[in-house]
């Protein structure tokens, strides 16, 4: 079945798993959400000790594969519509979403140093270019984005190390 220029792969009540003509998969909102709404709870399907391109980071040695599994298709954007709150284990809307809007998150919001860096093609006016983790962001970028508690802790730790030098 088609949804605009996308082929619907699966309907997960609040989100459609879609594929574009290039074969890229993503999630589109299937209902209206207001900023601050819980889009979906999530859980750790598996805990790994090192990052992969599919994990979300909880600590230095805890990287989770998301459950439900289709949440792995929440793609990156430098102008994200959602945030993985890894304390409450909830995917939260960062802005109002309408049916058909992409559900995206800012990868460095949960990743200190990513397994695989990439050149961002999100097209947002605020696009930061190379995506490689929060470690590589400027202080202004840290302040611009909503970041999980682990990343905030790593920033404080990093800043304390710079001050003691």
Q: Helicity level, as a percent range?
A: 10-25%
Strand ordering within the main sheet: 1-2-3-4
* Class per helix and strand makeup: mainly beta
What is the highest CATH level, the class?
A: Mainly Beta
Number of domains: 1
The helix-strand sequence is EEEEEEEEEEEEEEHH
Distinct helical segment count: 2
How would the global form be characterised? Answer: globular
- How far from one another are the termini? 59 Å
Q: Low-confidence spans: pLDDT under 50, at least 5 residues?
A: none
Give the overall pLDDT as a whole number: 93
Summarize the biggest pleated sheet: 4 strands, antiparallel
Determine Rg (CA atoms, Å). Answer: 16 Å
Detailed description of the structure:
The protein is mainly β. Helix content is 13%, strand content 33%. It has one domain (2-163): Beta-clip-like (Beta Complex), CATH 2.170.270.10. It has helices at residues 139-144, 149-163, and strands at 2-3, 6-11, 15-19, 25-29, 38-41, 43-48, 55-59, 62-67, 75-76, 82-85, 90-93, 104-105, 118-119, 130-131. The strands form five sheets. Strands 1-2-3-4 form a four-stranded antiparallel beta sheet, with no helix packed on it. It is globular, with a radius of gyration of 16 Å. It starts with a strand and ends with a helix. The mean pLDDT is 93.
């Amino acid at each position: 079945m088609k949804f605009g220029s996308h082929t619907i792969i699966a309907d997960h009540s609040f989100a459609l798993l879609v594929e574009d003509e290039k074969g890229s998969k993503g999630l589109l909102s299937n209902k209206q959400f207001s900023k601050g709404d819980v889009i979906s709870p999530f859980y750790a399907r598996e805990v790994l000790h090192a990052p992969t391109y599919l994990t979300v980071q909880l600590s230095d040695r805890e990287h989770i594969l998301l459950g439900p599994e289709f949440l792995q298709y929440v793609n990156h954007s430098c102008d994200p519509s959602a945030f993985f709150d890894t304390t409450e284990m909830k995917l939260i809307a960062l802005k109002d979403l309408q049916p058909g809007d992409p559900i995206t998150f800012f990868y460095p919001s949960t990743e200190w140093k990513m397994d695989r860096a990439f050149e961002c093609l999100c097209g947002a006016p605020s696009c930061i270019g190379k995506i490689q983790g929060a470690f590589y962001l400027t202080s202004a970028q840290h302040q611009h984005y909503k970041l999980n508690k682990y990343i905030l802790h790593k920033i404080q730790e990093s800043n304390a190390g710079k001050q003691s030098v």
